[in-house]
Write a structure and sequence with these properties.
35 strands, eight-stranded parallel β-barrel, single chain, alpha+beta, 731 residues
């Protein structure tokens, strides 16, 4: 073993400072005149020996962790390993600097174009076999970094000896680490442009430590899916022409303390028993602060580790699918928190956030907004949407806070924002991103639906992206949109004492003025039952009986109204207390030993029957998004607090819904109906005794009379129970 020529001082300095863009050029083995030169950087090692077939040679100690030498008479680099001796142990390892890049040119090209739709397969930590050696490929996009090193539990969190190489102008840094596998903890030690260092979690991490710890974890999926029938059939019918009844769940508090696998043993059976077609999970992506309910994400590619591993989460989705239940997850591309180990100024400069501080700072939540105009950031988010649908078999993405993305002046005063190039307030970059995301998800993931939580009158939220509207914009391309106007107006109405409701009658009918402008979901979500807004039953006026009656009548009205429906957990059994992520729903209300348990069980029984009747009645969902599916019978009975309307299936089979939001029984109430049916029967009555009502029912078939009413030649006379909704259909 001959001494190697000394390392150039600038290379030595840059390697030790973590600021070398091409460590493979000076570390590892290289053919030189007269043999093969080796140079190894192993801080804290007492010695390094090269071992190959018929060869064993100790390298010279150059100080500061550098070891080098020349193996004479070799014409090519042998298949070698390193014996690294420390004070109390000796390790045999492969040299990371003898491997070619483990990321292909096509990946780099697509990343550079911002078009890598499976970005998670190119960036992050990927266990693999590379050049016949098992290890993990680490890649990270950090274009402003002077250097990047890998630190983890495999090197005592000191990245000095593991500098990554820069892959050209892509901004991607790469290093294959042999011998590092699943379960390893890691972060990226990034050298900022000013020379300072920052330790960052992997933006593409697919698994993380349990908060408040925040290291990334090398992982790979071994889950074997058993939902083939579900996946094969979910695209058979367009979502807007199918039943969609959603149970919204905060997984961490539905049954506090349960893991994903324990939830899989309970949640599917509960949801299936109640007849909901889907669950919507509040954000499951990793987040540092539990009190954010998941809406301030730091790990966009990692299901929260609080309840288990990514495969455990897959197991839960699989169990829901096998129970016939679709899975929607809340997705949060509007903003991210400022934690100094996560995305904020990731490589020393604004990268994921906008470079303009005014554009970057989200005024409401103390967070940062993504830079939707940067192709790599759009790629990060579009691929993330695909990732959840493709890797976890998710059936829908409910996109949070869309309005805050669409408007440059959202929650900003005059002078705090800059108009777009046309002088308008629309965020053109965000519009283009949402269009790209929706188009990509629908192209790649048949049967998936995207749902916008969008609270303004933006034109074309659920219009196709290639259809330009009157405002000059193509549609955003969502499948459905939360109807925040209906939610606000109807809750305002129902919270009034019945004697005052006649002055607010239009708040229950106004939704039909715009009902077909978008494809809607009617949401009674977690946002409506927290922060002093009260649980749904507690919003109702009157005594306990009247509150429950109002609650039941409102749900009956909601389930019959055009649009899909969503109900947050706990509201299905009339929980009176506001929800808290600390303790979840008040399940004790359903304990048979509790005296008022029948009251709560009755409401839950109603929700089950609503879902059963709803799913069995195409009139309530088949023509949700076209005017032909709805007709008012009585929309002006303000003095009576009565609303009556017809819903029609594709074959014109009708269902009549009548709501009486007054506390008095109305006998022989006449309503016009289609004349071709000889009798109508009551299929649901929210006042039934088994639900906790007064049992004022229409027990016998009702025969139309040739008495004109409400513009129709025939009419029924029926009894309207107090504070109740009744559904009837032809016998």
């Amino acid at each position: 073993m001959r001494p190697a020529p000394p390392l150039a001082p600038e290379d030595r300095e840059r390697l030790l400072a973590g600021a070398h863009h091409d460590p493979h050029a000076v570390l590892g083995a290289h053919t030189v005149r007269g043999g093969v030169a080796l140079r190894i950087l192993r801080p804290y090692a007492r010695g390094v020996t090269v071992v190959a077939k018929g060869l064993r040679a100790e390298l010279h100690d150059e100080g500061e962790g550098f070891f080098s030498g020349i193996l004479p008479a070799l014409r090519s680099v042998p298949d070698y390993k390193l014996l690294v001796a420390y004070e109390d142990t000796e390790l045999e390892i492969h040299d990371p600097y003898r491997f070619l890049p483990a990321l292909g040119e096509l990946d780099l090209h697509l990343i550079g174009e911002g078009r890598h739709e499976e970005l998670w397969k190119a960036l992050g930590a990927e266990p693999m076999v590379h050049q016949d050696v098992t290890g993990t490929r680490f890649t990270v996009w950090a274009p402003n970094a002077r250097g990047v090193r890998i630190a983890g539990d495999f090197n005592y969190w000191d990245g000095t000896g593991l500098p990554m190489r820069s892959l050209g102008a892509s901004g991607v840094w790469e290093l294959f680490l042999p011998g590092v596998g699943e379960g390893a903890l890691y972060k990226f030690d990034i050298t900022r442009p000013d020379g300072s260092h920052t330790m960052r979690a992997d933006p593409m991490a697919r698994r993380t430590e349990v908060p408040p710890s925040n290291a990334s974890i090398v992982t790979a999926s071994h889950h074997v899916w058993h939902d083939g029938d579900w996946m094969a059939g979910r695209a058979d019918r367009p979502v807007h022409e199918a039943p969609l009844s959603v149970y919204e769940v905060h997984l961490g508090s539905w049954r506090p303390g349960l893991t994903y696998r324990q939830l899989a043993a309970q949640l599917p059976a509960y949801v299936r028993d109640l007849g909901f077609t889907h669950v919507e999970l509040m954000p499951v992506a990793e987040h540092p602060f539990g009190g954010s309910w998941g809406y301030q994400v730091t790990g966009f590619y990692a299901p929260t580790s609080r309840m288990g591993t990514p495969d455990d989460f897959r197991y839960l989705v699989d169990a829901l699918h096998r129970a016939g239940i679709g899975v929607i997850v809340d997705w949060v591309p509007a903003h991210f928190p400022k934690d100094d180990w996560a995305l904020a100024e990731f490589d020393g400069r604004p990268l994921y956030e906008h470079t303009d501080p005014e554009r970057a700072a989200h005024p409401d939540w103390g967070t940062l907004e993504f830079d939707y105009g940067r192709k790599e950031i759009r790629n990060f988010l579009v691929a993330n949407a695909v990732y959840w649908c493709q890797e976890f078999h998710i059936d829908g993405l409910r996109v949070d806070a869309v309005a805050s993305m669409l408007y440059l002046d959202y929650s900003r005063e005059h002078g705090e924002w800059t108009p777009n190039v046309h002088g308008g307030r629309e965020n053109l970059d965000a519009v283009a991103f949402l269009q790209e995301m929706n188009a990509t998800v629908y192209r790649r993931c048949p049967g998936v639906v995207t749902i916008a939580e969008e609270s303004t009158a933006w034109d074309g939220v659920t219009r196709a992206t290639h259809h330009v509207g009157p405002g000059g914009f193509g549609g955003l391309g969502f499948g459905l949109k939360w109807n925040m106007g209906w939610m606000h107006d109807s809750l305002e109405y129902i919270s009034k004492e019945p004697v005052h409701r006649k002055y607010h009658h239009h708040e229950m009918t106004f939704s039909m003025v715009y009902a077909y402008s978008e494809n809607y979901v009617l949401p009674i979500s977690h946002d409506e039952v927290v922060h002093g807004k009260q649980a749904l039953v507690s919003k109702m006026p009157g005594d306990w009986w009247q509150q429950r009656a109002n609650h039941r009548a409102y749900l009956g009205f909601m389930w019959a109204h055009p649009g899909k429906q969503l109900l947050f957990m706990g509201q299905e059994f009339a929980q009176g207390a506001e929800w808290s992520e600390g303790h979840g729903p008040d399940w004790w209300l359903l304990d048979p030993s509790y005296s008022a348990e029948p009251d709560h069980r009755g409401v839950r029984d109603l929700v089950r029957d609503l879902n059963t009747a709803y799913t069995a009645s195409p009139a309530l969902w088949q023509r949700d998004t076209v005017p032909e599916g709805f007709a008012w019978v009585e929309g002006d009975a303000a003095e009576d607090n009565v609303f009556a309307f017809l819903r029609f299936a594709a074959d014109d089979a009708p269902l009549l819904s009548v709501s009486n939001f007054s506390p008095v029984v109305r006998h022989e109430y006449r309503l016009g109906v289609p004349e071709q049916f000889s009798a109508w029967t009551e299929v649901l009555n929210t006042d039934a005794a088994r639900y906790g009502g007064s049992d004022v029912l229409n027990t016998e078939p009702l025969k139309p009379e040739p008495v004109p009413s409400h513009g129709r030649p025939a009419s029924l006379q029926l009894t309207l129970p107090p504070l109740a909704t009744v559904w009837l259909r032809p016998a």
